[in-house]
Amino acid sequence: MTDVFAVVRGTIAPQLEQALHVSRANPLPAAPSSLPAEPGHSQALFTRLLAASIDAAPAPAAPAVALTPGAASTAATASDPAAASVTELLAAYRDGSTTPSAVVGALAPHWTSDDVWSDAVLRLVDGAERAAVESTRRWAAGEARALEGVPFAVKDIIDVAGTVVTSGSLQTGDRVAPADATVVARLRAAGAIPVFTAATTEFACGGPHNARYGAVRNPWDPERWTGGSSTGSGSALAARIVPLALGSDTGGSIRVPSALCGTTGIKPTYGLVPRTGVASLSWTLDHVGPMARTAEDLALVLAVIAGGDGQDPTTHTAVPLVEAAPGRIAGMRIGVPRVWFTERVDGAVLDAHAAAVDRFAALGARIVPIEFDDLEAIDAECWTVFYGELAANQEANAATADLFDAGTRARFDVAFTPTAADYLRSLRRRPLVQAAMVARMDEAGVDVVLTPGIGATAPRLDDLTMTVDGVPYNLHDVIPRNTRVFDYVGFPALMMPAGTAPDGLPVGVQLVARPWDDRLVLSAAAAFQEVTDHHHRVPPASATRGSTDQ
Predict the structure, then answer these.
(1) Which of 59, 364, 484, 540 is most exposed, with the fewest beta carbons within 10 Å of its own?
(2) Element (H, E) at 15
(3) Where in the sequence numbering do the catalytic residues fall?
(4) Per-position DSSP letters for 445-511, written without gaps between them
(5) Range of lowest pLDDT (33-47, 60-74, 326-340)
(6) pLDDT tens readout for residues 115-157
């Protein structure tokens, strides 16, 4: 077995050293300076853009998401609920083809099985059957709420009241969550049913081989990883044992499993979804969001969980439109970068990206070249913020650092390297980068940006490598490259499946928009998924009956 600590330590220490070298070589102007380079300027920019997004949003369609698949579709949902999306389940409940009790009853055996996806399930949430009975009653009585009877999984850093939530760590013992996180409470209030906690890397930053629970195998190939840190959420969705899951994203942790497992997930705009009740890794970079099968599903869920809760100070009470409106794709201007985001990317991923560009063009979108400046330097700042806040969040565990798994321990060991000036320089540069990226999108006149997803297919669990055009790389050199920058700037970013590599594993593409324009990435993705079937592909290890890798 690979010495995980040595591999991770040997990769991330030079990465951090190089990041600090790049950042220190480019100091901001000394005071006095007129640059809007205080951390608070980021909040001011986002507040202004929120108002603009609300003013510019079109009137929502009625209904915003179609919930009326044909009779054949709802009959199929009734016979095989594991194959159903959120949208399909709701339609089947509505026309009486099935009930929440029947769906929970059909899926429940998969949550306690010994199949590949068993790695994804940590603990069952008490009361799922009772909640399903109540949801069945509500549908019969005409009292159904927005997500009535939809089962969902919850990443093990998000609190579920009365349930052991451990952040995937030996440090936490058998901690019982005192209350629901805001996102869980909102989903419950909308009728959705939490059914199990899903595996995560330790504190959402550890290595694939979790010290407490072990590795989460990929349903497409059990010798591969799902990608992190929302490991269990990605596996459970791909295996079709649940139609919806909650994840978090600090460097790509919703989008990475979505790409490597062939599912769809969105990292919302920073501040759209409250993080109350979610264990913090890096409060400047942390986002909470939904993971599902389709962009339509994500839009339904995001509409429920969005908006300030009075406790997370980064959230706003005003909520922009988050519907998925695929009919509005014609005339949309899609920016396509060709430099940073296409480097260290395997040919199969690039081919899928090129095909997606062509598909959007065929749908009536206008394809526009765009590049963002200084992405290597921006990437360096991401590392500094991450390590500074990881150190602050975990310093109390220094005396018991031997309890960390190898991946977390390797990161913790280097996390105290950045100085206060390094950390604050990275925070001060953030509003400048955010403003510059918005300005570049304005100059190019683009609505969304389309990038390749993760640079290669899922990494091997035995040696933690990913192969780019035949060359093996440590997974840390590939996975976060195309995702982390959008955590730093807080822009909405959606990952969806876009093809299959020669090794039979899924690859994805990423859609990004300005802050608060989550509706645009959802609409673009929904339009793409209306005319492609990548999101319907089922891995060999799947709970669906009679389904194959199509």
Answers:
(1) 59
(2) helix 4-24
(3) 155, 229, 253
(4) T-SEEEEE-SSSSPPBTTT-EEEETTEEEEGGGTTTTTTHHHHHHT--EEEEEEEE-TTS-EEEEEE
(5) 60-74
(6) 999 999 999 999 999 999 999 999 999 999 999 999 999 999 9
